[in-house]
Each structure stands twice: as C-alpha cells, then as structure tokens.
UniProtKB/TrEMBL annotation:
Signal peptide residue numbers: 1-24
Source organism of this protein record: Flavimaribacter sediminis
Keywords, alphabetical: Signal
Name used for this protein in its record: C4-dicarboxylate TRAP transporter substrate-binding protein
GO biological process, one term: transmembrane transport
InterPro entries from the UniProt entry: DctP_fam, TRAP_DctP_sf
Length: 375
C-alpha cells in the first residue's frame, strides 16, 4: 500500500510538472563592459529583469559584467559552448570566425550616424543569407546589434593637426581603424577597451580612439587631457545579444517573441542612453579642463582620402578569409543602411518608444519566432 501511494504521488507530481512548468534554471548573460556602461545597464541588467517578468520567470538571466564570466576575446566561444546563454561580442576579436560580420563592420565610415548603424546592422545580420550562415556555423543565434557613438582621439597630450598625429601610439579597434592610423602615420595598438586606462596611464598609449562616453565609463578622465573631434567611424561588428543555439531552440515561439519584443526596446534604449552618456562625459571633462581640438584641414582631408580608397582593402581581406562575392554583400549592406537613413529622418533621437516601434515593425515583426534561428 505504501509503495502504491509513493507511485501515485510520483505520477501526480509528473503530471503537475507537465501542466505547470517549474521556474527555469538561471541562465548566464555575459558582457565584458562594466555594469555602469549604457550597453550593460539597459540591454543586460534591465533587460534581464523585464524578460523574467514578461516570461513569468521561465527565462531568468543572471548578468555577469566586466568580463567576470568570459573575457572579451572568448565571448563568441563562450556562448557557443554554453558558458553563457547570451552574450555581447565585438567582432574584431574573431575575424577568422566572423569574416562577413567584419566585412560590414569595417564599413565604419560609410555612415557614422550611430542610430542608423545600430538598426541597419541588426536588420542585415538577421536577414542576409551569408550573415545567417555565419552565425549558424558558429553555433550562435543573432539576437540584435548595436552601434557605438562616433570614435574620437582621446589623448594624454595635445593632438590637433595631421602633423601631431604622426608617430602617436593610438589604441584602435583593429581593421579599418588600424589601417587609418597607418595611413596618417600613427602607430595602431590593438588592445581591449578594458586596457585603455592602463595604456594611457603608463604612457604606452598617447591616445585611445574610442567613443566619448569612455571618458566616464572607462574612467579615462583620470589619464587624459585632450580630445580631437575628428569622427573616426563607429563600431557595430558582432552582436549585442548572441544566444546559445541549444538554449534558443529549446524555447517556445511564444518565449522567443517576448525576447524579440524586449530586444527591440532595449536596442533603442541602449542607443539613446549611449548618446546621452557621450554628451555628459564630454561636458564634464571640458568643465574639468580637458582641451577640445578641431581637426585641421589636412587631417580631415586625410580621412576623406582614406575612406575613398579603403573599400578595396576590405574586399581583399574578405576574399582572403573565404567570403564569396563580398562586393555583393557590401552592396546589400549599403542598401540597408540607406533605407534606415531614410526611416530615421526626422525621428526624435531621444524618443525610446518611437525608435523601439521602428525596430519592431521594420525588423522583429518580420521574423517568424517559430523558425528564426532554428534548423
């Protein structure tokens, strides 16, 4: 009798588990920026809270920031292998694994509007066949993109003219940025953003080429004294959210729809807050004595000349990495960028809801949550 009661209880428990799923295990969400950064505060910390609430706890992300779970150069492998179930990844760290993404990411000077590039890079990476094949090969489901604000030369010594740039050791994001440094006679140094402070402090760097918010978010205000306002592209290669494929395929279409909705919102909110952080950091630094230099005509002309000539280098590098028909990929990417340039014309760049609505209607609502990212 006792055994029968145990079996009956076990059966009832099994039935109850099917009818009423228990709360999911906690999943790992990884970002190598500090928690105070705009791409972590909203798109990871607040995003995790909203997803948990919207899914009634079925998706519960534990956020690791500052590289505490996975370092910057291992985030693609980490999400593929399930160390994290979702992560941010900068494509510059894995050019061999992501040649298509690095191809479009090195088109950083084609349009430097970060709102346009955040939306365009997201749409392209979720719809282009070559990009989708690349994610699949890497065991990742692309959830959404991003774009930094424009890169500036933030320095520990005055850099105003083309002559000033020559010989300066500049932290660059690799790819087109490093080629530009060489073009103007500077010395490119490829290090993670987390190492900019140490480089500037010890003198192994003269400048960090990085968005203006880095003055605060990476505490560079302690080790710099000037900024040159030449806009040296912006960075958007990789993904803001890349999901472990096994996790994604194990979710119901309803849960994926919730993630789509939240990613559309935080794609917009993260971008708005990024711009606000840039403005605040620069104003605070100016108030504390940071000198602001406008580039001289020779420096501006050098950037224009470089941009005009660099597309051939992009195409050649992509072909060396096995990308088929990179010219057609760039043509399609430019068309997506131009489309978003038109869609965002006149849109208030501080209106999160309006920007999120565009991300939903123009990107996420066009995806099928039952099939996207699923073999």
């Amino acid at each position: 009798m006792h055994i029968k009661r145990l079996l009956a209880g076990a059966t009832a428990l099994t039935i109850a588990s099917v009818a009423y799923p228990s709360l999911a295990d906690e999943y790992n969400a990884n970002h190598f920026f500090a928690e105070r950064h705009s791409l972590v505060r909203g798109p990871y910390v607040e995003f995790a809270e909203k997803v948990k609430e919207a899914t009634n706890g079925e998706i519960d992300f534990r956020v690791f920031s500052g590289g505490s779970l996975i370092p910057a150069n291992a985030s693609l492998q980490g999400v593929r292998d399930g160390v994290a179930q979702v992560t941010y990844h900068a494509g510059t760290y894995t050019p061999a694994e992501l040649p298509v993404e690095n191809l479009i990411g090195n088109m950083a000077f084609y349009n430097t509007d970060p709102f346009v590039m955040a939306m365009a890079s997201t749409e392209f990476s979720m719809t282009n066949p070559a990009a989708l094949d690349e994610w699949k090969k890497n065991g990742v489901v692309f959830g959404g993109g991003y774009s930094t604000s424009e890169y500036y030369m933030i320095c520990n010594k005055p850099v105003e003219t083309l002559a000033d740039v020559k010989g300066k050791r500049m932290r660059m994001a690799g790819g087109a940025w490093s080629r530009f440094a060489e073009y103007v006679g500077a010395v490119p140094v490829s290090i993670p953003s987390s190492e900019m402070y140490t480089g500037l402090d010890t003198g192994s760097l003269d400048c960090a080429v990085t968005p203006g918010d880095s003055i605060d978010s990476f505490s560079l205000s302690d080790v710099i004294n000037s900024m040159n306002t030449l806009a040296i592209g912006n960075y958007y290669a990789g993904f803001l959210w890349g999901y472990n494929k096994s996790l994604w395929e194990g979710l119901t279409p309803e849960l994926r729809s919730i993630l789509f909705d939240q990613m559309a919102y935080f794609l917009a909110k993260g971008r708005v807050e990024f711009s606000a952080d840039v403005d605040k950091a620069i104003e605070n630094a100016k108030a504390e004595g940071m000198a602001i230099y406008e580039p001289d005509d020779a420096l501006k002309a050098a950037l224009d000349e470089f941009v005009a000539s660099d597309e051939a280098a992009l195409i050649a590098a992509a072909k060396e990495r096995g990308v088929e028909n990179p010219e057609a990929i760039l043509t399609e990417f430019k068309a997506v960028v131009d489309r978003w340039d038109g869609l965002l014309e006149g849109v208030d760049r501080t209106d999160v809801d309006a920007l999120a609505a565009l991300a939903r209607t123009e990107i996420y609502d066009k995806l099928d949550p039952a099939t996207y990212g699923v073999d």
